[in-house]
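Dear H.,

Thanks for agreeing to be a second pair of eyes. The structure we're designing against is below in token form, covering all 62 positions.
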């Protein structure tokens, strides 16, 4: 049996950004794109968009 996904609640500012800047687009799709962009920017995805595994995910100390 598949569990229902846990709902994610947005703060007021994020909800306003979605409503004003992405009017007419599905919120779920906009948030999915945002998470993929963030993961790529943080170095968690390889160039093909797959999640890095093992040693690839280790980041150098900042």
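And this is the sequence the design step returned. I haven't edited it by hand at all.
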């Amino acid at each position: 049996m598949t569990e229902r996904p846990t709902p994610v609640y947005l703060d007021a500012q994020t909800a306003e950004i979605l409503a004003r800047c992405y009017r007419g687009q599905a919120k779920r799709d906009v948030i999915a794109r945002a998470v993929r962009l963030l993961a790529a920017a943080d170095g968690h995805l390889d160039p093909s968009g797959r999640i890095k595994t093992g040693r690839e995910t280790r980041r150098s100390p900042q």
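Two observations from my side: Residues 12-46 form one domain. The mean pLDDT is 89.

Warmly,
E.
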